[in-house]
């Protein structure tokens, strides 16, 4: 059975200043999602689920439905502020979505196969999709999950801090731990993460998660339980986010599963700030020129 690709496209993009999920970057106006979809199809995925906010669903569908028709099954999941929130908490006063872990949970009704999760605004490369699809189709262990790891030094922005899942990998290739660091930057050739007023140095080769995860569908009930607990503890904090690394860390710590780390040789790039856009456009132009992508992605 071909795996499903979940695309996290519900973010607000406060630092970017616009809906970067559907902003054009390629030479023919392609979004970054277009490249992920193209690579997913040729890598072996059989379905895609766009996880969006209700207010952008129509626009996302208008863009991608004509491109995907006849090539791959597709569906939409709505990440709403009230989705999966325990009823006793009532109406939650927040605008910002609950985060990547919650977004994944919102796709549960649309997902019944092994699945991957990616960001809409990150470029992961052809190899990463082929590697993940192969794993999801061939590994039948319901407790074995996976992620694509990238070297930290290849994932920074020159225009400000970035958030990354900082990983420690065991000798057997499985993840030992992953911690979301929300303020990572480079200064005078040294990479740091900042937590309150404390700076901690990170090695340039540190493996990090760029939110390219692979899960078996048996994980959904656990995600729901963890999110409900998180919502009860954080419903008064409007910027609190329930991240995928929280789920993976729980699996590992409680010996409920493993997460294999596949190192990627693909070039990663993405957009956090408006100033990142020219670099992404130049990188995509080069990939078309080299023949990695055809002149037109969609016939």
Account of the 3D structure:
With 299 residues, this protein is an alpha/beta fold. 29% of the residues lie in helices and 27% in strands. The protein is built from seven helices and 13 strands. The chain has helices at 32-43, 54-68, 100-106, 126-138, 220-234, 244-253, 277-290, and strands spanning 4-8, 47-52, 73-78, 115-119, 122-123, 144-151, 162-169, 175-187, 190-195, 198-202, 207-215, 258-263, 269-270. The strands form two sheets. Strands 1, 2, 3, 4, 6, 7, 8, 9, 10, 11 and 12 form an eleven-stranded mixed sheet that branches. A two-stranded antiparallel sheet has the order 5-13. It starts with a strand and ends in a 9-residue tail after the last helix. The model has no long low-confidence stretch (mean pLDDT 93).
What labels would you give this structure?
single chain; 299 residues; alpha/beta; Spore Coat Polysaccharide Biosynthesis Protein SpsA, Chain A
């Amino acid at each position: 059975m071909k795996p499903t690709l979940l695309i996290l496209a519900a973010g607000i993009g406060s630092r970017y200043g616009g809906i970067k999920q559907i902003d054009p970057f390629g030479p023919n106006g392609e979004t970054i999602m277009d490249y992920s979809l193209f690579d997913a199809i040729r890598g072996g995925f059989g379905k895609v689920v766009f996880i969006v906010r209700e207010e952008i669903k129509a626009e996302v569908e208008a863009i991608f439905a004509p491109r995907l028709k006849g090539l791959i099954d597709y569906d939409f999941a709505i990440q709403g502020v009230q989705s999966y929130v325990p009823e006793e908490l009532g109406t939650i006063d927040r605008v910002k979505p609950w985060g990547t872990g919650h977004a994944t949970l919102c796709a549960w009704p649309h997902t019944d196969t092994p699945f991957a999760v990616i960001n809409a605004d990150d470029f992961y490369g052809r190899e990463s999709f082929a590697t993940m699809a192969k794993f999801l189709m061939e590994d039948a262990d319901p407790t074995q999950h996976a992620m694509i790891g990238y070297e930290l030094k290849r994932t920074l922005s020159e225009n400000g801090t970035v958030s990354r899942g900082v990983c420690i990998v065991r000798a057997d290739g499985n993840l030992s731990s992953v911690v979301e660091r929300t303020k990572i930057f480079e200064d005078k050739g040294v990479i740091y993460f900042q937590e309150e007023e404390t700076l901690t140095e990170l090695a340039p080769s540190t493996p990090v998660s760029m939110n390219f995860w692979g899960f078996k569908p048996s994980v959904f009930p656990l995600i729901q339980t963890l999110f409900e607990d998180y919502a009860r503890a954080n419903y008064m904090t409007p910027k609190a986010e329930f991240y995928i690394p929280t789920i993976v860390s729980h699996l590992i710590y409680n010996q409920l599963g493993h997460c294999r780390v596949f190192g990627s040789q693909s070039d990663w790039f993405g957009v956090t700030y408006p100033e990142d856009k020219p670099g992404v456009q130049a990188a995509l132009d080069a990939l078309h020129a080299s023949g990695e992508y055809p002149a037109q992605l969609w016939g």
